[in-house]
Amino acid sequence: MTPRFLLAARQELTHAVRYYNVQRSGLGNEFATEARATLRRILDFPSAWHRMGGEIRRCQRRRFPHALIYEPQPERGELVIIAVACLHQAPEYWHERT
After folding, report:
1. 86 contacts 19 by C-beta, under 8 angstroms
2. Could you give the CA distance from residue 10 to residue 20 in angstroms, rounded to a whole number?
3. Is 80 exposed, middle or buried (0-12, 13-18, 19+ CB in 10 A)?
4. pLDDT tens-digit profile of 56-85?
5. Which one-letter DSSP state was computed for residue 98?
6. Residue-wise pLDDT tens digits, 9-67
7. Which residues contact 86 (CB under 8 A, 6 or more apart)?
8. Exposed, middle or buried: residue 30 (CB in 10 Å: 0-12, 13-18, 19+)?
């Protein structure tokens, strides 16, 4: 499957990287590295993570309080990243994206 980020999810990723780099030099880069590792885990095991409803799933990050919210779409050969969700925000704010 090929990963595809919704525009809002890509913006959340960019914002988080910038935010963490302001907090400490290089921390945003560490966030990005962990995001890539999380995406690789999801691509390897797309049905292994917590189901949020329907086929939408959440894979929480190990170090940062974020989760990748995604939906496998095997018929299209895609894994759609719906949100790079900060777990400290209002839960399920991303629902209108689905």
Report:
1. no
2. 16
3. buried
4. 999 998 899 999 999 999 999 999 999 999
5. -
6. 999 999 999 999 999 999 999 999 999 999 999 999 999 999 998 999 999 988 999 99
7. 12, 16, 65, 66
8. middle
Residues in the chain: 98
- 63, β-bridge pairs: none
What are the φ/ψ torsions at residue 13 (nearest 5 degrees)? -65, -45
Helix ranges (H only) for 24-98 are 27-44
Which residue type occupies 92?
E
Decide if 69 contacts 85 (C-beta within 8 A): yes
Structure tokens at 48: 């292994």
State the pLDDT at residue 61: 83
